[in-house]
Structures are given as C-alpha cells and as structure tokens.
Amino acid sequence: VEVDFDDQEIIQAQEEKAAELTPREKLKMEIAAELGLLERVEQEGWESLTLAECGRVGGILAQRMKELNLS
User: Fold this and answer.
1) d(CA 61, CA 71)
2) Roughly what angle, to the nearest 10 degrees, separates helices 23-34 and 51-68?
C-alpha cells in the first residue's frame, strides 16, 4: 500500500497529538473508539456528538476512572 506525503503528515500529526494527551484524555479517546465514535471525533471534534453519545462516553469515563482510581 502506497502512502502519499499528505497521509504521512496526517499520521505524524495524530501521533504527536496522542503523545500530548493526559491519561484522562487517552481514556476518553479509547472509549470513543470502543463506541465507534473516534473517527467522527477526530474529523469533526467532540461537538459533533449527540447529547446521548456524549453522555455515554462520560458515563463510561466516570466508571473507568473510579475503577482505576484516577479521579
């Protein structure tokens, strides 16, 4: 599979952004991926999610943070 220069720049930018995330933000992104929302979040931002989707991410995030003692 050939990757053009623009795709390489995008991949590098995403990797750099991921390296700057806090543990809470990484967990939030992981949950979004599990729910099938990560691509939309990356392309359009968190504001593109519905209220129900945000609530689901937030509920799972709170539960996991409690389990991991990250509060």
Assistant:
1) 10
2) 130
